[in-house]
Amino acid sequence: MMTIRLCTPKCFVILLGITSLVLIARTNLYKESFGSDDGRSCKPEPLLDSIARVNGMFDDLKTFVMFIGYSQSVESHTGAILDAHPQIVIPQEYDVLGNWKMYQDKKLRDRGKQTHMLFFFLYYLSTFQAIFRNHANKPSQFWVWTSKVENAQHYPLSDSWQGTTNGKIKVIGDTSSGSTTRQLTMSQKNFTVLEDIQSVIGIPLKFLHIVTNPYDVIASNVIRESRSTVNINDAKDVFALVETNAELKKLYGDAVLDISMDQFINNPRETMIQICRFLQVTFYNSYLDKVKGELNKESTGARYQVIWTDEEKEWVAAEMKKYSFLNSFDF
């Protein structure tokens, strides 16, 4: 006999969300209709006023931040920590660079709504991920998110500002570090896309470069492919990304901040203060106390879990000497 599934997990999530919204709406309507008469009218707010109120959330924005890097978990984890700040909105793995084409719609551009649409989607996605956490990996029912990242890990911080703000958003952005760097590596035309993004958003574009030991990056990629032995092409692939990030640093200068993973783990409070200053947001003591131990959960020993030849180790060591931001690392 054929069994009919009445509710898939995805449907359940959607229905749960709709039910919650309906219950909230019904509760508010009940209070308005049957509560004490305090003189307020139940007349709906004009649509234009509602739109202005939503757009007003972004009036104080000072910085658009993009992550560049090497598709390591520490990059997403750092983004989650920043999203927990009351003045910052950074969802996981939206891929602004890869999705930028949809903001080139002529009607959207002619109406000057590109920025509002981008900012609203990023804010929405941050909230969605904070609510559903790892169940929000790929909400394909929402066309807004077309990230190619599979099984993205989300890092919930309890009792924090993840998914919301204190009403004064200063920074908004995207954590798609590996995707951004790889797209820039694959096509120089994407550097022009960055220029277009900068032109459209109308606020400074900054980059966070989370620098991980190249030996660990190479090893992580090998492990991700269920292999145990490194080959020279694995190393060359990673250093192609390194070269792209170095090129980006030359182009954008002080708008790129290098943050060593080891630095973050060993001195989390000082590093977070450095990032907050770079992004021009307040570094609240309560926030710093909450996040200072988060990155201790990150592992830095992937290089010991795979097999290297001496030649491969030496090749990587020689390449590392070409880049000042890699000087602190060794095998």
UniProtKB/TrEMBL annotation:
Keywords: Transferase
EC number: 2.8.2.20
Enzyme class: transferase
Family matches, as InterPro entries: P-loop_NTPase (IPR027417), TPST-like (IPR026634)
PANTHER family for this protein: PROTEIN-TYROSINE SULFOTRANSFERASE (PTHR12788:SF8), PROTEIN-TYROSINE SULFOTRANSFERASE 2 (PTHR12788)
Function comment: Catalyzes the O-sulfation of tyrosine residues within acidic motifs of polypeptides, using 3'-phosphoadenylyl sulfate (PAPS) as cosubstrate.
Protein name stated in the entry: Protein-tyrosine sulfotransferase
Species this chain originates from: Stylophora pistillata
